[in-house]
């Protein structure tokens, strides 16, 4: 009976990721673990400093080791947190190296470069989306993509009134978290020229910002899926007016695509520069830690 149900299409077949997407997902998993380790170390160091009545400076995580070493704290506190600083410096070096490897892997996936033209979507969000979805054409519509990622409302209806609850939270939790983070980025940008930003602020006025951001995350993954399916860049404006056609319309579309790809290329160059800078900073911190341990 199961075999006949599969033959009729009554049971969906399990999708097997392609080797390239499996490698991309594994690398993203390594990066996620390193980021979590880095965060835990920073939180632990700050907690130890507070317990010793010392105040550490507020700064970005990539500069944390350098700022702590130059901070005016007691020698007892410095001696306690020094092993953690050495581990943190090594973790940051490994994280910078993984970021460079991810850049190399994503360079082999043109669709990732395409998806980064959308607002709030960087390399990690685009790469995670591609590694989870794998093939855009295995979904019929954007609603299926949102359901696959657990971003659609949970339905508990019977013969009576329709009852909708919170999102189902099924599927890949990491991709769902990244989609919500990207939605928060769009919401906070408050770019009135972008239709997604205008839409989420309109929903926030009616339902509250948290519900609006989750709804935007669902809409954003649908937009990314449509961009991937059609092979187009993010186009916030309707370039093709109702009466536009012919060469003028084609020229506008090409100009918009070129501009979007240019912005995506600038994003990629900036990420590479930042990764190289973090790698150099982490290497210097490790050398300083080794010299400090030797002395």
Please describe what this structure looks like:
- With 295 residues, this protein is mainly alpha-helical.
- Among the domains are: 18-108; 138-155 and 162-251, no CATH class.
- Helices cover 69% and strands 2% of the residues.
- It contains eleven helices and two strands, in the order αααααααββαααα.
- It has helices at 2-8, 19-51, 64-70, 75-107, 110-115, 123-133, 142-148, 173-189, 195-207, 209-230, 246-294, and strands at 153-155, 164-167.
- The chain has a two-stranded antiparallel sheet with strand order 1-2.
- A hairpin with an 8-residue loop joins strand 1 and strand 2.
- Helix 2 runs antiparallel to helix 4, helix 7 (142-148) packs across helix 10 and helix 9 runs antiparallel to helix 10 (209-230).
- The chain is globular and about 70 Å long.
Shape, per Cα inertia axes: globular
Unreliable stretches: 238-247
| Helix/strand class | mainly alpha
What is the mean predicted local confidence, pLDDT?
A: 87
Biggest pleated sheet = 2 strands, antiparallel
Tell me roughly what share of residues is in helical segments: 55-70%
Order of neighbouring strands in the sheet with most strands? 1-2
The secondary-structure element order is HHHHHHHEEHHHH
By DSSP, the count of extended strands is 2
How large is the radius of gyration? 23 Å
Strand content: under 5%
Q: Distance between termini?
A: 74 Å
By DSSP (H or I, 4+ residues per run), the number of helices equals: 11
What's the topology here?
Blueprint: H1 2-8, H2 19-51, H3 64-70, H4 75-107, H5 110-115, H6 123-133, H7 142-148, E1 153-155, E2 164-167, H8 173-189, H9 195-207, H10 209-230, H11 246-294
Antiparallel strand pairs: 1-2
């Amino acid at each position: 009976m199961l075999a006949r149900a599969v033959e009729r299409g009554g049971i969906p077949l399990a999708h097997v990721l392609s080797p390239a997407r499996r490698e991309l997902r594994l690398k993203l998993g390594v990066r996620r673990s390193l980021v979590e380790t880095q965060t835990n170390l920073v939180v632990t160091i700050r907690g130890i400093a507070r317990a010793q009545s010392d105040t550490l400076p507020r700064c970005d995580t990539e500069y944390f080791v350098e700022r702590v070493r130059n901070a005016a704290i007691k020698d007892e506190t410095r001696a306690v947190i020094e092993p953690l600083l050495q581990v943190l410096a090594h973790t940051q070096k490994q994280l910078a190296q993984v970021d460079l490897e991810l850049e190399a892997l994503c360079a082999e996936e043109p669709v990732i470069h395409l998806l980064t033209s959308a607002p709030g979507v960087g390399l990690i969000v685009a790469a995670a989306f591609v590694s989870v979805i794998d093939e855009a054409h295995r979904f019929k519509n954007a609603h299926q993509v949102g359901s696959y990622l657990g971003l659609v409302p949970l339905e508990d209806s019977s013969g009576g009134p329709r009852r909708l609850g919170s999102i189902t939270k099924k599927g890949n939790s990491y991709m769902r978290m990244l989609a919500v983070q990207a939605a928060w980025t769009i919401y906070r940008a408050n770019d009135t020229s972008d239709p997604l930003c205008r839409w989420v602020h309109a929903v926030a006025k009616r339902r509250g910002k948290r519900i609006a951001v989750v709804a935007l995350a669902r809409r954003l993954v649908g937009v990314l899926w449509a961009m991937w399916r059609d092979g187009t860049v993010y186009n916030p404006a309707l370039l093709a007016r109702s009466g536009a056609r012919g060469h003028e319309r084609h020229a506008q579309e090409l100009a918009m695509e070129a501009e979007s790809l240019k912005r995506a290329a600038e994003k990629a160059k900036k990420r590479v520069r930042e990764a190289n800078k973090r790698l150099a900073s982490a290497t210097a911190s490790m050398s300083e830690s080794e010299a400090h341990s030797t002395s």
